Amino acid sequence: MLVVKSIPAFNDNYIWLIHNNQGQCAVVDPGDATPVLAYLKEHDLQLNTILITHHHSDHIGGVSELKREFSDVTIVGPQKDAVAGLTHSVGAGQQLELFGEHFIVLDLPGHTLGHIGFLGDGKLFCGDVLFSAGCGRVFEGTPAQMWQSLQKLASLPVETEVYSAHEYTSNNLSFAMAIEPSNPQLQIYREKVNQLRAHQKPTLPTTIEQEKWINPFLRVDMPEVINSVAHKTEDLSPEGVFTALRKWKDSF
């Protein structure tokens, strides 16, 4: 199995570093090259591959500098998003090999129109689509697209590890508690997260199973979640509840 480490960047980004214990590594969504280069130097690693989920600057800002330092690096990103400098543009269903493990590309529109994810070795790198206890804002796509993307992720094996790109968990849990205050799993998880953050430790990765227990955006069929938005929408279908939740979270 591959080893994954987090490299903090900016205020709350995680650049995920994947390595194979043989001095080779890949990074996911390097918005800033400086902490990546420092980590590579400290641990004597050679950058082999860059994986990009979408075009926002806090996910691609460090690519050009990393390319200058590692001229042979493979840069894989979405064919439907405008990302300069890719060596391989990929879309839904395509596969790539990373240090002996096969990864499949998932099409995850909503946050951006061309957003993708990478799934392999029991790990999901999903950028800004699924967060722990939350989901990404809908900037370019539609709520329906984001809902379908989340449904796609919810159908993955429950043990799948979820490597989101931001440390938003504490904030997301505040919203989740407002939506489903009677959920005992939420209360347990909030305590765990509070302890981790008190020691400045990441709350990620999470798992699909964990998110099905506590993430309101994956629990739109639960009575308490439905009731929480009943005053905000007449559409209480799963997609309608999701849309109301996402709109509410935007101004929470």
From TrEMBL:
Biological process according to GO: antibiotic catabolic process; methylglyoxal catabolic process to D-lactate via S-lactoyl-glutathione
Residue sites binding Zn(2+) 2 per the record: 58-59, 128, 166
Keywords for this protein: Hydrolase, Metal-binding, Zinc
Pathway: Secondary metabolite metabolism; methylglyoxal degradation; (R)-lactate from methylglyoxal: step 2/2
Molecular functions per Gene Ontology: beta-lactamase activity; hydroxyacylglutathione hydrolase activity; zinc ion binding
Residues binding Zn(2+) 1, per UniProt: 54, 56, 111, 128
Needed co-factor(s): Zn(2+)
Cofactor note: Binds 2 Zn(2+) ions per subunit.
Superkingdom of origin organism: Bacteria
Protein EC: 3.1.2.6
Domain annotation Metallo-beta-lactamase: ranges: 12-166
SUPFAM superfamilies xrefs: Metallo-hydrolase/oxidoreductase (SSF56281)
EC top class named in words: hydrolase
Catalytic function, reaction form: an S-(2-hydroxyacyl)glutathione + H2O = a 2-hydroxy carboxylate + glutathione + H(+)
Role this protein plays: Thiolesterase that catalyzes the hydrolysis of S-D-lactoyl-glutathione to form glutathione and D-lactic acid.
Subunit details: Monomer.
Family the UniProt entry places it in: Belongs to the metallo-beta-lactamase superfamily. Glyoxalase II family.
The name this protein goes by in its record: Hydroxyacylglutathione hydrolase
Species annotation: Vibrio halioticoli NBRC 102217
Gene name tied to this protein: gloB
